Amino acid sequence: MNARAPRHVRCVSLVVLLTLCGCTPIAGYEPHDGDIVFHTSRSSQSLAIQLATKSPYSHMGIVYLRDGKPFVFEAVQPVKLTPLADWVERGERGRFVAKRLRDADARLTVETLRKMRAVGEQLAGKDYDPYFEWSDDRIYCSELVWKVFERGAGVELGELQTIAEFDLSHPAVQAKVRERYGDNVPLDEIVVSPAAIFDAAELETVYER
Predict the structure, then answer these.
(1) How far is CA 123 from CA 52, 66, 202, in A?
(2) Are strands 203-208 and 97-101 parallel, antiparallel or unpaired?
(3) Which helix or strand (DSSP H or E) is residue 75 part of?
């Protein structure tokens, strides 16, 4: 005779099963290779980025599945893969948004994803770039996503801007700018922000919490 397991035991068993099969325990979100995730970072520069770009989203990365398990390829210190659950936990209140190319099934083929990963491998291990320079010597989060998609998939996500185009008027932004650059702010430096990629017309929201 097979007795039915108590509800709490069944729930624990389900979580274990999801972990073993590599499924995400985040209810309602089914991660796909090439998804882009955004959250509000709790880093020391997060507020300044939010104010300068007029967006709550100050950090982002690309979702990849490895052996069925979801990771986020992100530019922190250094550029690396982070388990999705850990990445979500680092954000404010565990909230995040996942976006996907509108035509992802057609554009993110196995070969395209391979090329994207190859581009990423060239940047993996690079130091984080606190100066937001448009070079491959050091990399910041939205720059990483933009370059992986442009070089690997031929997709340019978000409008490239200069530092001068951001709102630098708030005291918190000015303090961070002085900390980074002193009196020599590179106003003509090309940058791409998380906000710009978030608003890219090529993307659609597939999950938000």
Answers:
(1) 26, 18, 24
(2) antiparallel
(3) strand 69-75
Query: In the prediction, which pLDDT does 26 show?
Result: 86
Q: pLDDT of 76-133, one tens digit each? A: 999 999 999 999 999 999 999 999 999 999 999 999 999 999 999 999 999 999 999 9
Cβ neighbours, 10 Å, residue 197: 24
If phi > 0 it is left, if psi is from -120 to 50 it is alpha, else beta; for residue 107 that is alpha
Question: Tens digit of pLDDT for each residue in 10-41?
Answer: 443 433 333 444 444 588 999 999 999 999 99
CA distance 101 to 97: 14
- Report, as an integer, the average pLDDT of 52-72: 97
For residue 78, cis peptide bond before it (omega within 30 degrees of 0)? yes
User: What does the alpha-carbon distance between residue 55 and residue 53 come to, in Å, rounded to a whole number?
Assistant: 5
The contacts found for 131-137 with CB under 8 angstroms, 24 or more apart, are: 131/180, 131/181, 131/186, 132/163, 132/189, 132/191, 133/186, 133/189, 134/189, 134/190, 134/191
CB of 192 within 8 A of CB of 160? yes
